[in-house]
Hints:
By secondary structure, chain A is α+β, with helices and mostly antiparallel strands. Chain A has 5 helices and 10 strands, in the order αββααββββααββββ.
Amino acid sequence: MLWLIFSAALTTQALAPLSVVNEQLIIEFKPRSPDQMASFYEARGFPKVMRDILRKQCYITVGITNTSQQKIWLDLADWKFSANGKKLERQHRDHWKQRWQDMGMPLRHQSTFRWTLIPEALDYLPGEHEGGNLVLPFSKEQITLDAVFATGENKQGKPIHIHYDQIYCAEDSP
Amino acid sequence: MSRSILISVQSFFLMLGLLMVLMPDNAAAKEIKLPFGIREYNIGLAPNFKLADIDGEMFDLKSTRGRWVFLHFWASWCGPCREEMPTIQALSETIDEDKLHFVLVNAAEDEDTIFKFLGVVAPNLTSMMDADGQITEIWKPRGLPTTFLIDPEGRVRYQAIGGREWGLPVYRQFVQSLISP
């Protein structure tokens, strides 16, 4: 559900979504520009020091829909990003939690930031749609994702492999 | 011939008696059909909390014992929350408050934001303010919005995943089936 959060909040025109559709799930990617993200968090009262850090990241709002009749398991540990053949390290939500804590940022902003991130792990029930933001290091290169989803009640079904190379980091308009 | 009829009748009543003993009582046997997006979520007793609402009135979740509770986590920046909230208001207007208590918890926003949002989207509802987001962290909704249904003994029983159209008959009937004796 969180992938839709910005539709209500952003005034900036959203970029066209990119998507992966297979017979069991749909994944949509919406790159967000630094201006979009900074505006969103500024409207929620985030201090400049947080916004300045957030501006330097690459944001992709991801929405995942389970279109199958079985449980599908998201685990971001099984998502590998690369750009131009080099590994791109995604920041885990615990990294951000620690960073905001170390900076003494208000708990309410820490909480809001966490809720805008895609869960690290989630079991998607048939028909369920959830999502949120991925935060990656900024890259001017096209980004490739190789992801694996476990399936079935006990993760013992046939895994779903996704390879997608159309992701990019949005930049502000000149 | 008449003896065999007698035995058959006796067997019938014997079976009937056995069935009556083995069958659970009516309340327990009541089958509740779950609409799309609602799942059983038996995690035991609901973690208690005390929060102030936007008028500064303190609320204690424990005070709702004896009634079902519709516990809803939301935020103004969440698009599906905006769509769902009017349907929650519509549902609340058709339900006896003595049987189902609606508790909204806003995740980490200030009272001006909450007031403006509800004033436009669902003016008849009020919300608790989880100002620092810590109650939301404890409850761990799958995402926002999320609704939990808590039974009169204080046990979490169901979870609504994402935004639901609570005004639809299928959801109203589901809620009614919970609170009906």
